[in-house]
């Protein structure tokens, strides 16, 4: 009896040492490969990024004409929340009814552009589960001018109540700016919904002949999961090893 107490103490001490030895290496290894690239030091140039991509000339012109680009630059500099911008392609603008943008007043153009900007940085993966509606820069202190996001698997859709489109292409996904391509202009209900069209009510929308061809669903690469499970496996292995040793100790 007297000899069994020191034996179990020795087992406990070796167990602890083994735990330390086995658990430390995975923790230190995990830090190096997942280190994100350091953020560029200079201010973020939204129109510069859009310009480089070549297919956002209409949106850039609207940003500049409405001076929302200055506002965004200031906010990127000062906001602790960051920003998310949804950039419609030139095709998206071309697909609008002619005059849809030109008929807007200056104030309405500003509101339309601000509607494509959310005062918070979202990664795509955040938008999969975000609480709707998401505020935009056009939102006042009420809940109007919001965007709704729905996620299915890796796919995020955004809806305004008037248009729904997929978000496939992340032009930039690094704080403070999330910048995503949208293939439709996000038309807010507040501008395009309630107002009955000035012209004669056109008979129901003809089923879009092009929608079926839009099958480019380049799903965003899912971020590789960290190997958090391996740590638990090691613990389980050590525990069972320890149990085995305790049994052997009891038998001897
Ligand atoms: C941002 O990019 C645009 C277009 O490339 C350029 O004209 C402008 O000078 C840049 N602004 C800053 C602050 O670098
Ligand atoms: C943003 O901050 C940088 C440095 O902090 C400054 O040089 C630049 O003028 C600022 N831009 C705006 C639009 O405030
Ligand atoms: C929004 O705020 C303004 C003052 O900042 C106030 O007069 C107005 O009632 C508010 N609207 C709502 C819907 O809370
Ligand atoms: C957006 O989501 C909110 C909350 O679920 C819902 O009340 C609202 O009707 C939705 N609007 C649209 C246009 O889908
Ligand atoms: C997402 O939007 C596309 C159209 O852009 C539509 O075909 C698809 O059904 C939507 N998915 C969901 C789950 O709403
Ligand atoms: C799909 O992508 C291919 C190449 O990536 C492009 O040539 C084609 O125009 C795209 N189609 C649509 C409907 O976007």
Automatic annotation (TrEMBL):
Any Gene Ontology biological process? plant-type secondary cell wall biogenesis
Q: What is its main location?
A: membrane
Renumbered residue ranges of the record's region Disordered: 196-229
Q: What does this protein do?
A: May be a cell surface adhesion protein.
* Membrane topology summary: Lipid-anchor; GPI-anchor
Residue span of the signal peptide, if any?
1-30
- Keyword Transferase included in the entry's annotation: no
Q: Which family does it belong to?
A: Belongs to the fasciclin-like AGP family.
Bias class Low complexity marks the residues at 196-222
- Residue ranges constituting the FAS1 domain according to the UniProt record: 43-186
Q: Which GO terms describe its cellular component?
A: plasma membrane; side of membrane
Can you say where in the cell this protein is located? Answer: Cell membrane
> What InterPro entries does UniProt report for this protein, alphabetically?
FAS1_domain, FLA_A
Its source organism is: Carya illinoinensis
Q: Could you tell me which Pfam families the record lists for this protein? A: Fasciclin
- Keywords on record: Cell membrane, Glycoprotein, GPI-anchor, Lipoprotein, Membrane, Proteoglycan, Signal
Its recorded name reads: FAS1 domain-containing protein
């Amino acid at each position: 009896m007297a000899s069994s107490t020191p034996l179990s103490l020795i087992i406990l001490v070796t167990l602890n040492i083994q735990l330390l030895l086995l658990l430390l290496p995975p923790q230190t290894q995990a830090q190096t490969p997942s280190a994100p690239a350091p953020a560029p030091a200079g201010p973020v140039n939204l129109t510069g990024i859009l310009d480089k991509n070549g297919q956002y000339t209409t949106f850039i012109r609207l940003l500049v004409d409405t001076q929302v680009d200055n506002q965004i630059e200031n906010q990127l500099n000062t906001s602790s929340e960051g920003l998310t911008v949804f950039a419609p392609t030139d095709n998206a603008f071309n697909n609008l009814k002619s005059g849809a943008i030109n008929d807007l007043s200056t104030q309405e153009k500003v509101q339309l552009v601000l509607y494509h900007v959310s005062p918070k940085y979202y990664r795509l993966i955040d938008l999969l589960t975000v609480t709707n509606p998401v505020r935009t820069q056009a939102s006042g202190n009420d809940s109007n001018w919001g965007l709704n996001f729905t996620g299915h698997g890796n796919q995020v859709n955004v809806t305004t109540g008037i248009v729904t489109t997929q978000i496939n292409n992340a032009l930039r996904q690094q704080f403070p700016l999330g910048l995503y391509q949208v293939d439709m202009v996000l038309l807010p209900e507040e501008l395009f919904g309630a107002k009955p069209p000035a012209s004669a009510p056109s008979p129901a929308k003809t089923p879009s002949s092009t929608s079926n061809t839009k099958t480019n669903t380049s799903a965003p690469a899912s971020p590789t999961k960290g190997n958090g499970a391996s740590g638990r496996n090691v613990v389980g292995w050590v525990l069972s090893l320890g149990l085995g040793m305790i049994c052997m100790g009891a038998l001897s």
